[in-house]
Amino acid sequence: MFGRWVVSLAFFLHSSTTYRHIKNTTYNLLENSNYPYKRYFDFVMIALIFLSVYILIRQVKHEMSLNWLFFNNYIISLIFFIEYLLRLWIYSDSTKMVIDQYEHDLFLHRPFSLGKSIKTIFKHKLEFILSPAAMVDLLAIMPFFHEFRLLRVFILFRVLKLFRYAKSLRRLISILASKKFELLTLSVFAMIIITVSSVLIYVMEAHNPASKINTLFDAVYWSVVTIFTVGYGDFVPVTHEGRVVAMVIIVAGIAVISFATSIIVSAFTEKLDEIKEEKLIDDVSKLEAFYLICGYSSLTHEVIHRLKKMYKHIVILEKDPYKAKEAQSEGLIVLNADPSSLHTYQITNIQFEKQVIAVILLEDSDVANIYTALTIRELNKKVPLFSILHHHENAKKLSLAGIDEMVNPHHLVGLMSKRISNQPITFEVIHALRSGHGGTVIEEIILDDGMSQRFFDLLLHPLFHQRLSMLGIYQNSTQTFAFNPQPNYEIRAGDVAIVVANRALCSEFRDLLHRKKIKQ
After folding, report:
1. For residue 110, what are the CA distances in angstroms to 96, 97, 104, 107?
2. Which numeric CATH code is attached to 180-273?
3. How does 141-176 read in b/e, with b if 16+ C-beta sit within 10 Å?
4. CATH class of the structural domain 288-411
5. pLDDT digits (tens, 9 = 90+) for 254-293
6. Across-strand partners of 499?
């Protein structure tokens, strides 16, 4: 009867949307470093740790108010205790274990074994309890029993909890863990040297009345201090034999320190690229809005040059490591990852709804662009997708893959050839303006709501009047172009002004327009 009640409760909780949502939110808050609210939780817990340590230090020689002691001994301990229970709760899915055991027994036509399911649950929970991080959490709760004065010292274990909340500290532990075999070997070597040297120095020095090394503990203390090249000088050998042992231990100590340093340096060197990649992913996750370019090529340079003029961030996904390094050497934000893989967007945690303005596909083949488009459309249906078209016969496939607009460079070459043959001088003028090789350039300036009066007034400014020419305004909402509009023309968000002037003058015009916008 009780087993049936447990199974019913397990099925109810497993199917409960509210229960799953609460558990997932708790997991994200405690364990998911990509969860936006986790850092606030970490900041609060770090502040509590430092506050409790400050109270411990302060009360050694100063009287602390009862409120502060109550807060430290009870409130903070209770918060850590609740956190410990929540981590124990989310460590494994107990309801799923009960359901799996029930379905297994049902399939074999035998009664539900409640004992086996409890044993499985207990085994998984015990794994968490015996883990080093969980043991630190448990020791950090001990000051709750403040009547035992010795247990107040366990407040210092709260400092070790910083490894849970500080990502850089967790990264340090993971780097050292990658060399755990080498570090373990070195530790065994150091322990053997300490043991042998302790016994030798004790045998050589303990019988001499002038020596301060009178006990085995003194010998161990001297060995540790000597082998790690500290040398306080409070214990020194006085016999010739003891000094010979000291010389050998000093040399051995230098070897131990050198080996330890080389192991740590090699661990950081091997993980350096991974650390840089993680740091880059963190930086990308903090960007509010950016253009995502998939594929790095010569065409990417021109696209980036144009987008940077709009004061927008650009993130590049490139699966070829050599091309990725080339782009990184130019100071670009580049992730060495396959843009057509779902795993890429899972590890980079790119939020298409909140971060990506548009995706531009510039890979070397239409097939690669199609795969990337299908992957992105699986994640988000609305983000604008633009792509280069290498072969005209693939235009329909690109369109079916969800690409909004595509550009065929071969078609553009044909148009340019026609223009050159019919109007060569006009084409050369436009080409010179667009290329920006001379002093005069044609620029696109993004406008915003309520900018009409300010924009046209600025055109009449003595600095720009008769020195900067406006060709017209492209209205983004209707996708129409207004040549030489009148001052009463209504400018809306997303409209683009096309102006011709000296490069420095265009830059000054844009900066002044945006500065005025900020001041208002």
Report:
1. 19, 17, 9, 8
2. 1.10.287.70
3. bbbbebeeeebbebbebbebbbbbbeeeeeeeeebb
4. alpha beta
5. 888 888 888 888 888 877 777 777 777 777 877 878 888 8
6. 443, 470
